[in-house]
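Reading a protein record of the kind used here takes only a little practice. Think of the row as the fold of the chain written in a discrete alphabet. A record is reproduced here so that you can trace the correspondence yourselves:
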Amino acid sequence: MIFFTGDTHFGDSRVLRIDRRPFPDMVSHDVALIRNWNLIVGIDDEVWHLGDFMSSRAGDCDTLLDSLHGRKHLIVGNNDSESTTDASGWSSVQHYKELTLDGYHLVLCHYAFRTWNKMGKGSINLHGHSHGRLKPVPRQFDVGVDARELQPVRLDSLLCSRRQKADARRAKVNATQGSVVKEGRR
């Protein structure tokens, strides 16, 4: 299995205040995010972390990485220090990555793009950084924990959630149009 996540900000107390994460302190926050991660990610799974992994106040990066299941790849974020990017627990570290998964061309970066490679051919942009605050655009997904119930997510779940929202919007429009037609007949 391959999972995506970002913006965990382990040890960074700013997320409690700025992002209003529902924890009384960073210890509770970090324990919950580790638990959420390990509940769904298996030892042999792969996780692409799209930046802002931890604050230096969280301790040693390799110790934290050892507590998390899976083979971990880092897409560097604006808050990732050298102690994070140089940790030996990462399978790879880069600022940008393109890969193919389940027939989809994925463009991974910490930052959301307005346009991205092969956009016109159906490619998908996965990003973090915005903490769930950007208006969604087609084929672009914020995989940061604030947008994904504080846990990593699989591509099929992202695609399914977008389809469900689109179906709900269509049903609402159809229901509204149906009531307009009914009212016009009276």
